[in-house]
Amino acid sequence: MAANRRPPKPKIKPARKHDEFLPEDTWNRLSKNIREIHMHNASSLSFEENYRYAYNMVMYKSGSMLYNGVRDLVAENVDRLAEEDIIPSFPKGTSNDPVQQGQENELLLKALRRVWDDHTGNMSKLRDLLKYMDRVYTKANNVPEIWDAGLDIFLKHIIRPPIQDHILSAIVTLIQIERDGYVISRSAVKECVDVFLQLHSGQQENETVYKRDVEPAVLLASEKFYKAEAERLLATCDAPEFLRRVEVRFQAEKSRTDHYLHSQTGTPLRKILEEHLLIDNLSTVVEMPNSGLDPMIDLDRIEDLNRLYRLFDMVLPGLPTLRRALKASVLRRGKEINQASACTESGETAEAEAEAETGKANGKAKGRAGGPPQTLILALKWVQDVLDLKDKFDKLRKEAFLSNREIESALHEAFEDFINLNDKAPEYISLFIDENLKKGLKGKTDVEVDIVLDKTITVFRYLIEKDAFERYYKNHLAKRLLYGRSVSDDAERGMLAKLKIECGYQFTQKLEGMFQDMKISSDTMQAYRKHLENTTTPAIEISVTVMTSTFWPMTHSGATCVLPEILTKACKSFEQFYLSRHSGRRLKWQPSLGNADVRVQFKARKHDLNVSTFGLVILLLFENLSENDFLTYEEIQSATSIPSPELKRHLQSLACAKYKILKKHPPGRDVQSSDSFSFNNAFTCAMQKIKVSTVSANVETIEERKETRERIDEERHYQIEACLVRVMKDRKHMTHNDLVFEVTRQLASRFQPNPQGIKKCIENLIDREYLERCDDRKSYNYLA
């Protein structure tokens, strides 16, 4: 049996001896291979071998030789690339053709990009080979890693005169060629710009060569170009075309920075455009004759106005300039509306006065006892023109100016200014509302009615003298209610509701009281008719409206009249009934505000006439006269005691208007004190019922307007005093300026008090010992 045998032990080989390291020899082999890399022959080389060469040089303390040697080789290669590729691509500069110039400059930029791509490709390979050197040697010796060193070499050997000058010139030239409308290779510029963005100048932290060199050159050329461009556009374009060209320039420059210039250039480039194309020319564009802001508004060029707004909104002084121009435009148009109204009315007034002096009145003088009839037409036209202007600018504000609040404020100020320049604005607005509430809303839907009322409130909102409007509105409302002329109670109450929202409860308190009186009067008449069923019924049927004197305008109190006995009995009957129900009250009849239905027998037939109460009193004088009997003007006035202006108006309505119930002798359009009248028995008309309209005084005469102004001033005086006492009673002590400011603020919703008027009222209150002046002569104490 064989015995087990152990395997023999392996022999231990001695350690292999390394060859002696020779730095120069290693570097020679490595440098040769680096040159092969620069010549694009890296595929034939061994990465491990070259990595070991570099590793050994660092390990054996030859890192300095390696680092500096590589830098020199890289610089040598970059210089070779510049000489072979970039410098031969310099533009010749012999052609004036933009297309050829563009091609030459594109070739230069592409050459730079090729050199960059070659250089960075080589540096990427060297970075991989020299990783150990970057990790050990560069950090220990505080020198840049080989990649950063390569970028620095590229910067110093390529981005230098004259190459740098030609490159910057090429970029600026290509931008200029594109601005002139030609097509360029944006990619060539973009690739070149990317090179400059990756190179850092070293002068400031993180400052790129693009920021140091390219951007200033582009901005300098841009400023020069846009200065000239602004002058050229102003000389050759109208305002809309100028704005279109400017907008295109802004869009083009944004596209330019987005596609091939860096975004950081966008802001300073935009500022250049804003300064030279917009800021320097804002007023010039707005005021361009035949094409500026006003012509664009006249022609409703919404798109052009919107472009103007958008461009002006880009710059700080843009909106204030547009705001001032729009305000001036509205003011000018508003003053033209005021001027047209004033000229027409003054011309007609002068004509009417001349006719009155010569006694040759014509149709235009008809009814001048109540004021020129055209004044109502002027009022309606004035308000409608203002509303049309408001609608026009509201549309522009919404569609062109995008509902900008500053623009809205400017338009509001302009409308307020020119509306209040017309001292007849309160009367005109009230007349416009009166006309609409009488017949202008007939046949309209509730929505349409609300639109009309909203428009009238729009104009009313601009009024400063709202107390003057209140007086006119109260007179017109009283006539509508008493004569039953309102198109609907809903519309009337809707208008009151809008006025209350605008001015508060106190403004409409008396107006609402008038409506309440009408309702109470209706209930009273129902009770009166039931009362008559148990008593002796008067010969005529009457309908009475009992008006509270504090609510209603009592401007007609002076127009008295001697009523016939038949009317007097009816009035007495109602008085007895009313006073039996209410103690401590007093009734005062207002015949000038009433009307009557009377059946009149003419030769041909009977007609039912609707006339004023004064008209009825006049007609009853002719009841028992024969066809050939006459009554003189003096006899009629003596029998009725109707004031002369009222009597002439009513005689003119009965004898000179459309329905000639009476005959005037001699015939004519005007009533004179020497005239006489007879009953027109031969009157004929196809209608059974006839309304004989009185020559009305819808508008004020000069004297009446003066009287109204005096009453308004008197009321304002009392309101200022009441406000002064109210404020001082609350504060006890105030300086003069603070007191004037507070009183002005509180009264602003009704009118704009004059500081001198406030001072005068303060003096009156001091004299009446409500206030006392302090020793400093600048403040007051409350006494009462």
What is the helix content?
A: 55-70%
Unreliable parts: 352-372
Total helical elements: 29
Can you tell me the CATH topology of the domain at 23-160? 5 helical Cullin repeat like
Radius of gyration: 49 Å
Number of strands: 9
Q: Mind telling me the CATH superfamily name of the domain at 23-160?
A: Cullin Repeats
Supply the CATH class of the domain at 23-160. Mainly Alpha
Distance between the first and last residues' Cα: 150 Å
Shape: elongated
SS strand fraction: under 5%
What's the CATH architecture of the domain at 23-160?
Answer: Up-down Bundle
Quickly give the structural class: mainly alpha
Strand order of the largest sheet: 1-2-6
Describe this structure in words.
It comes from Pisolithus tinctorius Marx 270. This protein has helices spanning 23-38, 47-59, 63-86, 98-129, 131-141, 146-157, 163-179, 186-198, 209-236, 239-259, 266-278, 282-286, 293-298, 302-312, 318-358, 374-399, 405-421, 425-440, 446-461, 466-483, 489-503, 505-532, 565-581, 613-620, 633-640, 644-655, 702-731, 736-747, 755-767, and strands spanning 595-601, 606-612, 631-632, 662-665, 676-679, 689-691, 733-735, 771-773, 779-782. A three-stranded mixed beta sheet has the order 1-2-6. It is mainly α and 784 residues long. A hairpin with a 4-residue loop joins strand 1 (595-601) and strand 2. The chain is built from 29 helices and nine strands. The longest helix has 41 residues, at 318-358. Among the domains are: 23-160, Cullin Repeats (5 helical Cullin repeat like); 233-316; 522-591, no CATH class; 594-691, Cullin, Chain C, Domain 2 (Ribosomal Protein S5, domain 2), CATH 3.30.230.130; 702-782, Orthogonal Bundle (Arc Repressor Mutant, subunit A), CATH 1.10.10.10.
